[in-house]
Every structure is written in structure tokens, then in C-alpha cells.
Write a structure and sequence with these properties.
The chain is of the alpha/beta class. Strand 1, helix 1 and strand 2 form a beta-alpha-beta unit.
Amino acid sequence: MRVVIAEDSVLLREGLTRLLTERGHEVVAAVGDAEALLVAVGELAVGAGGLPDVVVADVRMPPTHTDEGVRAAVELRRRYPGLPVVVLSQYVEERYASDMIAASTRGVGYLLKDRVADVREFVDAVCRVAEGGTALDPEVVAQLLGRSRRQDVLAALTPREREVLELMAQGRTNAAIAQRLVVSAGAVEKYVGAIFLKLGLAPSQGDHRRVLAVLKYLEG
């Protein structure tokens, strides 16, 4: 995949570049601030190669080192709907995390740096987002859930169904959920079916039901 990296720390930027290139991916741009990120993606968008497959951006970047990176990520998703973006952060910026998720139902990642303990899992998460999936740190899910104003929608779910839905929100497949909960894949399919039914998501909505269920879970 073709990747754009935005990280103001030279060491981390170079580390991410090396990590991805060693695994066969192409880093087409690596920049150190939010404005440079917007410019780089804009130039790629009109170039022969087109938009990158995924953007990996830090939340805090110059000049104020507060939320420039995540604001740039939200802006990129506004300019280029569907552009996959993975945000790396040391904390959860609830407002912008919610905006990123609400802006599009595909290609969203929000990972906490201190909780990325496995290199392979990180690369897998970036690849999953590039393919249109989601990768949300459990702490991000928990904080977004905590600010939700419409939990009445989820009141009909059993504790186990809510647990399955939370794992769905993290971007896990049914097989991964089954492994995590130590249950059969068939049991997970039944839980997922019950979740769709209780949330009023009809079979006619196809594969989008999974995304819609997650959005209901995170809505706030």
C-alpha cells in the first residue's frame, strides 16, 4: 500500500517509515506538520499515482502541538471522502474522534501510542483501515461511549451482546471476537444477528449493517 506519514518527531517518523517499508509498503510522503500533510496529500491527489491508500497522522503537531494533526485528518476526510486515515495519539480527543467516525463509515483508525504494544498488530491495523475497515483502540471506544447521549438505543442489548458490539467497534472480525471471548464462531454470528435485530438494522442493508451498528454504539 502507498502511505503518507505525518509525525513531527523525526525519530518516530523515520521509525514508522522504516517499519512500513520493511514490510513491503511504500511511504510516498513523510512530513512533520499538519499544513505539510494537507499539501502532500493534495499534490498526490492530482498526480499520476492518485491519493495514498492510507494516511497515518499524529494528533499533536506544530505549531501549537495540540490538535493540528487530527484536525488535518478530519479536513482530509472532508476533502477526499473515503480517504483512509489512522490517527496516532497519546490521548483521546473525543470531539475529533467522533467527527472522524461520523464523516464516513469506512477507513477509520484511532490508536493510542502507549497502547500499541505489538508491531505486527499495528501494521495489520493500518492495512485494515487502508482496505476500508476500522481500527479503534478500546479506550477510544470506551470514552466515546461514555459521552454518548443516546444509550437508550442500546438498552435492549444483553451484556454479552454489548461486549460483542464493543469488539465490533474496535474493528475485530467475527473470528477474532470468537477467539477473544472464547466462544464458537457460530455463537458470535448469533450475537451479531441479535444485535442487528434489536437495533432495527434490516437484512436489506447488507454489509453496511455492521458499520451502522458500530455508529449507533458510538453515536454521541
